[in-house]
Every structure is written in C-alpha cells, then in structure tokens.
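=== RUN LOG ===
request id: a7f3
mode: sequence -> structure
chains: 1
length: 111
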Amino acid sequence: MSSSLSQVEYVSHTRIGEKGQLTIPKQYRDELGLATGAPVAVLRIGEGLMLIPEQNRFRILCESIASVLEHRQLSPADLLETLPEARQSVFVRRYPELARRERGTRRGKRH
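=== RESULT ===
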C-alpha cells in the first residue's frame, strides 16, 4: 500500500443529498479505485462515520485473521480441524428443534 493511501487526511466538505447520498471527490475515487456502484462499508465510530471500500475491508479482515492465527501459532489444518464441532454448535443454536429431532433419530438407529 502506498504511503499516500495510508495517511489520515482531511478530504473536503460535502453535503448529504436529498436521498442521503454523499459525493466522494473524483481524485479520491480514482486513487482508491472506486467506480460507480462500488460497495463501501459505513462504520459508525461514536458521533462519526468512516467509509471503507469493501475490497479494503476484506483485506483488513484477512490480515487480522492471519495475525490472530500467527499469534496463537495455529496452522490452517488446526483451524479446519475445529470446523465440524463449530458447525454442529451453530446448527444446534440456530435450529434447536431440528437438532433435537436429529439427536433422537441418531439414538433410535443405535438401538
């Protein structure tokens, strides 16, 4: 990432239009590769808003995950090993009635 893109920089004043739209100056759209219709995440930080192009948000998320895995000394195989249990936990939490029926069916097949 070039240093000019990583700086905190005052851009300009803009006004919210009738439909809640904001105009991002062309220079910044060009520098960030934002074309018409580009997805942008809007984060609320206290009384402020932060706009983050989706491609940057995804990159930041990936870097954050990689950092946590590295810090905890986990390999991709370690992470994948936990998926069956994690999937089951989510399934039970999201679909409790279906999970109870599934457990009952499993118990019946064992006998």
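=== NOTES ===
The two ends are 61 Å apart (CA to CA).
The chain has six helices and two strands.
=== END ===
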